[in-house]
Amino acid sequence: MLRDLAYLFFPIYCAACNDALYQNERVLCTSCRHELPLGNFHKVNDKKMKKVFYGRSKVENTTSLFIFQKDSLVQNLIHNLKYRGQENISTELGIWLGKELQQNTEYKAIDIVIPVPLHPRRLRERGFNQVEKFGKEIAMNLDANYIDYILKKKSYNKKQSKHGRRTRWLNTSETFGVQNESLLINKHILIVDDIITTGATLEACINVLKHIPGIKISIATMAMTV
Predict the structure, then answer these.
(1) What is the CA radius of gyration of the chain?
(2) Are the beta carbons of 64 and 226 closer than 8 angstroms?
(3) Second label for 116, Cα 20 to 30 Å away, from 28, 174, 180, 199?
(4) 3-class SS shares of the chain: helix, strand, coil, % to 5
(5) Taking a C-beta distance cutoff of 8 angstroms, is the pair 174, 186 a contact?
(6) Is the pLDDT of residue 33 over 90?
(7) Residue 166 has pLDDT above 70, yes or no
(8) How far apart are CA 23 and CA 182, in angstroms?
């Protein structure tokens, strides 16, 4: 009874459409769970994401939970996560994609999940890394280790969303560093991020890791732009 009253006066809203959730719904309403455009790259072996890195960086597997378009439910979702501090979105999307990848033989081979890091200044501004809980849930579902101290962001850049590929690359190249490299020798790692657009940020991460002996690198993101 008290729980029902509390929900009546303090409703919880869907992180995508902002409608009030029913009591049996969590983070996303049932309608949005059916309407959000799924990437499903890991299911259909779509090469669309791999083409982003073709000829520049070698990746084993690539996948994204959603397709991202402007003025969409997915944009609302990512905006609420990054700029309104709704970290439960990161957890929910990690659970969703983690369960999907758990059924995929190629992703069961993942040893370590690594998030794209934020610069310490950006981390202080935002208060959290938006892909941390996403990565942790995926790692748990894949029975992999989650390690967030291997990749480091060395320089502080302005937001990249309005820049083209060349400008993004110039802004991200040589801005990442790696430490404790011995942990990655002969390991298959999964780098996780929120959105992949030009791939410049992920490419920069790959380039500081690819020299490590025996390393294999795969990619998983919350969304991919089309």
Answers:
(1) 18
(2) no
(3) 28
(4) 40, 20, 40
(5) no
(6) yes
(7) no
(8) 47
